[in-house]
Amino acid sequence: MKIAVFGATGGIGQEIVKQALAAGHSVTAVVRDPARFRVTGRGLEVFTAQLGDGDAEALRPAVAGRDAVLSGLGARTRKDAGMAAALTRPVLQAMEAEGTRRLLTVSAAPLGPVPERQPLVDRVSLAVINAVLKDIYADLRVMEAELARSATDWTLVRPPKLTDGPLTGTYRKVVGGSPRSGRTIARADVAHAMLAMLDDPATVGRGVGVAY
Predict the structure, then answer these.
(1) Cα angle at 67 between 196 and 156, to 5 degrees?
(2) Is the distance from CB of 19 to CB of 39 less than 8 angstroms?
(3) Mean pLDDT of the residues in the chain
(4) DSSP element (H, E) containing 44
(5) SS3 assignment, position 98
(6) Is the pTM higher than 0.90?
(7) Is residue 76 pLDDT above 90, yes or no?
(8) Beta partners for residue 123, in sequence order
């Protein structure tokens, strides 16, 4: 499969690229600074682009002819709030212009539905996290709304707290919901889940919670 990866220098993005290459996919890694991108391998193309509103035309070659686009774009800190929607918007525009339909994007677990019988400690923790990171989650809600309005076959992947743990391939996945008491997941396993959903029609147009 031919895929494009946005946010390829980030923790999830680099894992997507590495695992996709290992699986035999052809990968276009879209980066702003090639010097920060350390992944190499057969089947890899590095595409340099500055992302932001108005940059859709420059992104069209990166998504043209691709079977799918995977994105790890988003804010890393509270001061970056607003980046997820702003960076994703031109990707959507470029995909629609080129007729590239499949898109998987990272969001966050607190934007998904609260699981039934969620323990009180997890409900309290969620309320605190929502209050502390409200600006980041407001940005992600805007991004999610724009995906829902787009012409793409989108999937929103919603992990909880991310870690730098190793790839396990063992985690819980809930289409249209969130795993109960799902508190952490490694970036490597988020990447694994995204690649596994590439050709899963049950995840199209849905949010998918992933967690240990």
Answers:
(1) 50
(2) no
(3) 93
(4) strand 44-48
(5) helix
(6) yes
(7) no
(8) none
| Backbone φ and ψ of 94, nearest 5° | -65, -40
Q: How many angstroms separate the CA atoms of 194 and 151, rounded?
A: 20
Distance of CA 144 to the CA centre of its chain: 11
Strand ranges (E), 128-196: 153-158, 161-163, 172-175, 184-186
Tens digits of residue pLDDT in 100-134: 999 999 999 999 998 888 888 888 787 788 777 88
Once rounded to an integer, what is the mean pLDDT over residues 74-94? Answer: 81
User: pLDDT grade, residue 77 (50/70/90)?
Assistant: low
Task: Write out the H or E segment, with its range, that includes residue 15.
Answer: helix 11-22
CA 203 to chain centre: 14
Give the architecture (CATH level 2) of 2-211. Answer: 3-Layer(aba) Sandwich (3.40)
